[in-house]
Write a structure and sequence with these properties.
There is one protein chain. The longest helix has 27 residues. This protein has a 29-stranded mixed β-sheet that branches. It contains eleven helices and 29 strands.
Amino acid sequence: MNARNGSRWAIGIATGLVLLLALAVLLLAAFPWGMFKDRIEARLSARIGKPVTIGTMTREDRLSFHPVVRLTDMRVPQPDWAKGDGDLARIGEARVGFSAFALLTGGPVVETLDLRRARLNFYRAADGRESWSGERSGGDERKGRRPALRNLTVSDSRIAYRDDKRGRSVDAALAVDGKGLRLSGKGDVRGYPVTVTASGAPILGHKAGTRWPFRAEIAGDAVGMTFDGTMDGPLDIGHLRGKVTGHAIDLRVLDAIIEAGLPGTQPVRLTAQVVRERPDWIIESLEGTIGRSAIAGHATVRKREGRTRIDGAIRAAQLDFNDLSSDEGRRKAMAKRARLGDRLIPDTAIDLRKMARTDGRLEIQADRLLWPGSSPFRSLKGVLSLERSRLVVEPLRMDLTRGVLGGRLTVDQRDGGPRLDLALDLRSARLLDFFPETRIDGGLVGRIALNGPGRTIRQAVGQSSGTIALVAKDGSIPARTAALMGQDVGKGLTLDKDKMAVLRCMVARFDVKGGVARTNPVLIDTSRAQTRATGTIRLSDETLDLTLSGQPKQGSLLRLKGTVPIRGTIKAPDIQVPKEARSAKGIIKMIGDAIGGDKVPRASDADCDALARSAMR
């Protein structure tokens, strides 16, 4: 083959390829898309397991790479498991314009959509299954593909949604035309009636690259939320930003809308600036109130590989822990208190099962703690770190009227049920701030090191092992109280009530095993007497089984012999005074012993420094 013939051959092949490509492009532009009607019906039917029907499907234009297909009388039944009336979708007429090239490249396909006489009924079951997808809802980790839709019109149409997982529903009329998007209807959130409205700018003629303004509102007396903002483009719900306001009688009711797993509380009002960059949410300038607590903060929520990570900070100008419980929760707590009695150890839940797929780091600070009565706890600061079912609060600091309680709290649920680990130190405190009615004061330090399983703090402490230690030194105590603690009944009843004695030390150490705290030792040493306590405290129900024995350091007028049992609970101790101290015969005997010169060994001063070191070891 000579060069000339070779060149002609190459040109012929190239020309043929060009003609073949041109023919393929022409076929794509003129393709009779209506012939796919049966295939589309079959694929949709296979997906939901029920027959999907399309009355007619025809191509309106003859030659275009952006064809328009008209479908009529389209019916998509609900899956068998779905509740609710009517089909999943019934559409009288739909005109769909799409990109033929996008079908080949995998890009956004639908460009224009005109719906008439559409009735859409979406349903999500309590187990999370969605009638429109056939799958259980979970974390949305999809990157936000920006829609290519340039034109949407909807007329004479309605959209209904019922969600048994979150307890919400809506039935609304939807219209989209040259005036913009309008949605209006009624529904409920956890049984509370609401009105739902939404509006957006016109989609037809929207300039590419400019933001699309919208407003959505759920309005009701019990719960409500508004979102005023913009999307990167029309209906681009994966990329939006704006201001959110919300209110509810209970944060759990509001959570039915925002789906963040929030607990029940007192009435709430919140505002925030929100940015959505699917799959992430960025929450800035959060401000609001929960009951009488005032909060502010920010957070970033990221979803990756089936997990949610929340990082941020919350600061409360003032915080009442009772605001973190709903009225229903308060009633249950009051009923439990009435049944079991008042308790010192909180019944706060520490079960992390609902947060098994949540991680994050949250800085918390409460500048002022509000209490229904007197309390030495004034402020709170801590850092919460949650990683794969292990929660660590460290550093944890609670400022007191005087002094600090700080350390670490850990809840580990990686191996089954939650396990609580407490390591707290009390420093530079004063005894009087904890028990002002006793008028007993002294410098106070302490240590708590407990570890135990349980789904609440009370349960975990009630099954824990470790140590509890408190040491108070160099203080004062009413002289009457000091005398009675030495079992000197005479001086305990006759001394001037304003007279004070010296509190040399109060040393209390409990070794805890299986939820039972055993004294090792408990001693109170004053200038008038020395008192020891022996026995146990059962932490599961806080019941006392203690015995007091007191010994005076001075001569006693009327002395109670033997020991004094203490029963009851930590919050309601029952000091069981021996019979001889309650009867005339017993009192006469004590007088006789005093007149007869019954000698009682006097106590000497305890080695407070050595006892304190041993207790705090």
